Amino acid sequence: MGKTAEQMNPIDQKKMCCMEEGEESGTHMPDELQRNLMNRMSRIEGQVKGVKRMIDRNVYCDDILTQMSAVQSALHSVSRLLLESHINTCVIERLENKDPEIVAEFMTTISKIMK
């Protein structure tokens, strides 16, 4: 598994998701973080397919619910990793640059993920 944001040095953290100078749109994240997120999402995709098979086979509801809880936990874990990266890079950089819109944008993001 790749390094988490807290295991990276500050220079690497800074490069994790902020747009590089000259880029027109989108974000930039290091290959290692992107691979880590993609691997986790692939595992989650497999878990979801497993839940679908369980439903199709009419498996005991409690067992299906347990697997659904595992999927939700895995998704929350991926969200936390990406949020941590976003805070340690994009948000901090924009705060340092005195960007007045970052706080409102970040609060909107937090509201969306806390639903």
TrEMBL record:
State the InterPro entries in the record: Metal_Tscrpt_repr, Metal_Tscrpt_repr_sf
Pfam families cross-referenced by the UniProt entry: Trns_repr_metal
Look up the domain of life of the source: Bacteria
Q: Which GO terms describe its molecular function?
A: DNA binding; metal ion binding
List the GO biological process terms.
Answer: negative regulation of DNA-templated transcription
What PANTHER family does the database record attribute to this sequence?
A: COPPER-SENSING TRANSCRIPTIONAL REPRESSOR RICR, TRANSCRIPTIONAL REPRESSOR FRMR-RELATED
What's this protein's name?
Copper-sensing transcriptional repressor CsoR
What species is given as this protein's source?
Oceanobacillus sojae
